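Running co-folding for nicotinamide-adenine-dinucleotide.
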Amino acid sequence: MKITIADRFTAEATAWLKSHSQFDVAVTTDPERLKVTDAVIVRSQYPLTKEVLDTMPKLKYAVTATVGFDHIDLSECAARGIKVAHSPIAHSAAACEHTWALLLACARKIVASDKTARTGEWNRHPLLGTEFSGKVHGIVGLGRIGTRVAKVARAFGMTIVAHDPYRDNAYFEEREATRVGLDELFHLADSISLHVPLTKETKGRINKVEFAFLKPHSIVVNTSRGGVIKEDDLVLHLKAGGHGMFGLDVFTQEPHRKGYELQNFPQVTMTPHVGANTREAFDAVSMEAARNLVALIAQAPVSGPLPPPEDWYQAVSGLAISHGV
Ligand code: NAD
């Protein structure tokens, strides 16, 4: 069985795969190797589009060492009988912590503070921040990461409102979150974080309608996928002097094209899709993906089974995401 690792992966997880005598493991994107590979491990930088799948005619198994799977054409994989898994567990802590890093950076104007402290200007007047204590945090997508973010919000003394049509009331109660509609969430919350997968349903779902509901001094953080926010609407909202500070780790196009408008607004704090970019998460997700591949091959349960493509979870494929987890 030929296994090809086509993206960033740890030496430890590679060695673990190599320790299985039935596997021939190579770390490469050499087209000659891909032509004969039975299994592939990728991340978002190596999207499995129809065209890429055409270069791997023997492929039977594909695992992405990421939570997001919008870079994989699931319908095409299903049509070709390719079994696919993602790796949803290992990134949760890192993504939650980065969400809070951006929430805090926006609330306490960390980027501008760093600049004025560094230059010795010491211009504190524009740096008046906001507090989380006693406020309402809104979570869109109360899954693994959303649940962790809620836990931290409670530690700050916040109450939680959340929007997730795919979870039942008992699930919300366990997380001490009040179920609300999306518009209501934007109307009620002082800070908001997005934790939904990019699907046909969530693509562009956060747009001018939701921005119009934002309170003064509210904060919106997106560490999910760039396409969830309609970026053109956000630009217009900010140009019109609309409410809110925005912490963005993910973008419709990564890296940005030249002249990307959102980079001009001081209300926006940006990071280059580093939500899961910690040493711990990289080690853990490589092992999670390696174990999932071995389990897929053995027809054993994986940590990240993907629902059938016809399901609501069908990801939007063919997006120009080149960096990500
Ligand atoms: P998850 O599957 O555990 O949670 C997603 C939640 O979203 C689920 O509860 C689901 O019911 C809900 N949901 C789906 N469609 C919805 C809709 N239309 N409206 C409201 N809720 C909806 O996933 P997770 O592990 O929490 O990860 C969430 C996303 O975060 C991933 O899909 C991935 O794209 C992204 N992510 C980004 C980074 C990063 O580096 N920035 C790291 C990890 C994960």
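Result summary
The two ends are 27 Å apart (CA to CA).
Residues 279-297 form the longest helix (19 residues).
Job closed.
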